[in-house]
Amino acid sequence: MISKAAVGIAAGIAGSILLGYCFYFDKKRRGDPDFKKKLRERRRARKQAQKAGSKIPDLKDHEAMQRFFFQEVQLGEEMLAGGDLEGGVEHLANAVTVCGQPNQLLQVLQQTLPPQVFHLLLQRLPSVGQKIVLQTAMAEEDVE
User: Which of 12, 56, 80, 104 lies 20 to 30 Å (CA to CA) from residue 38?
Assistant: First the structure.
């Protein structure tokens, strides 16, 4: 049988090796010339995404996407009813972008929204789509 002392020594050595590897990897990562540049870019993009408004949930989580969709539609309707056209259109564009069937949603919105608001929504869709793609790409980078 292996004594308790031997197990303790082996665990201590394994812990020391792991800790040493962590220090080595962190020093190597920080010494990378592109590390600070990438870190600044990531932080800048995250700040812009937070300023831009809604945080897009994970696209693979169906329930979170559904909650986000309904939340954006509700916020868009409330803002339009309150007279904030820009904010309302922004939220509705988020909803259309993450919608599973955007053509059907656009048909419904075309019938319910005033024409000038609907045209503003159509103009806003490409930029919102790019923003969502950027946010999901940043989220995937953070996971890696």
Answer: 56
- Kindly tell me if the per-residue pLDDT of 5 is higher than 80: yes
Q: Which two tokens stand for residue 128?
A: 């919102």
Asked whether the whole model's pTM tops 0.90, one would answer: no
Tell me, rounded to whole angstroms, the distance of Cα 35 from its chain centroid: 22
Q: How large is the angle between the packed helices 115-143 and 85-98, nearest 10 degrees? A: 60
Rounded to an integer, what distance in angstroms lies between the CA atom of residue 4 and that of residue 120?
73
What dihedral angle (degrees, nearest 10) is formed by the CA atoms of 101, 106, 111, 113?
130
pLDDT at 34: 84
> What's the Rg (C-alpha) of the chain?
24
Question: Rounded to whole angstroms, what are the CA distances from 78 to 20, 51, 72, 88?
Answer: 55, 20, 10, 7
pLDDT at 36: 80
Say how many CA atoms lie within 13 Å of 100 toward its Cβ.
7
Considering only CA atoms, which of 43, 70, 71, 68 is closest in space to residue 57? 68
